[in-house]
Amino acid sequence: MSEVTIQVRTAPRDRRFPTQNQTNHCWARYIEFHACAKAKGEDDPECEKFKRWYMSLCPAEWVEKWDTLKEEGRFPGPE
């Protein structure tokens, strides 16, 4: 039987968010992804990094809500 190695990673530590509450970290990574995607395209490796990070930090319900708000033009963050 061969061994399978699974690597689990999350967003790196960010000194801007020193507490255990990662709400602001989640929000910042979501915003950074969309700014990057707008500038370089969603498939850019740099942008994909931000997406992996916000997906590991943010509850799925929040991401779904924010994506819906973006589609409707009612998102409270920067365009």
Automatic annotation (TrEMBL):
Question: Does the record's keyword annotation contain Disulfide bond?
Answer: yes
Primary subcellular site in the record, as a coarse category: mitochondrion
GO cellular component: a single term: respiratory chain complex IV
**Where does it localize?**
Mitochondrion
Domain of life of the source = Eukaryota
The protein's matches in Gene3D superfamilies, at most eight in alphabetical order, are given as: Cytochrome c oxidase, subunit VIb
Database matches in InterPro entries: COX6B-like, CX6/COA6-like_sf, Cyt_c_oxidase_su6B
Q: Give the species this sequence originates from.
A: Gracilariopsis chorda
Which Pfam families does the UniProt record give?
COX6B
Q: What is this protein called?
A: Cytochrome c oxidase subunit 6b-3
Xref: PROSITE patterns: CHCH
Q: Which keywords belong to this entry?
A: Disulfide bond, Mitochondrion
The residues the entry assigns to the signal sequence are: none
